[in-house]
Amino acid sequence: MTREREDDNAPVPIFSGYFWEVSILKGLLENEGIESFVYDENRYLIASPVWGTVTLVVSSKDIDRAKPIVAQYEEKHTKKE
Q: What is the pTM (predicted TM-score) of this model?
């Protein structure tokens, strides 16, 4: 495998939030054919929601497609102060 190919698949954090928020975004990304995974999912499920946030990660090759989906979610669901 070439170095360029490896970089195309590098994991990139795209969103951090509560598990339920990350789960919604994961579903939205999957609907668009973008694979993602939840970093720290096991820690969250074992320890409890008290520990705070988890992080949604996508492949660097998908980051440009994923960003607008995350931005739209944040615009609709993030509390404006």
A: 0.76
Task: List pLDDT tens digits, range 34-81.
Answer: 999 988 655 555 555 555 678 999 999 999 999 999 999 999 987 655
CA distance to 20, 35, 52, 53, 69, per residue, from 27 (Å): 11, 9, 20, 17, 11
Q: Identify the structural domains of the chain with CATH numbers, from first to last.
A: 3-77 (3.30.70)
> Are the CB atoms for 14 and 58 separated by under 8 Å?
yes
CA distances from 70 to 9, 45, 62, 66 (A): 19, 23, 12, 6
Query: What is the residue type of 4?
Result: E
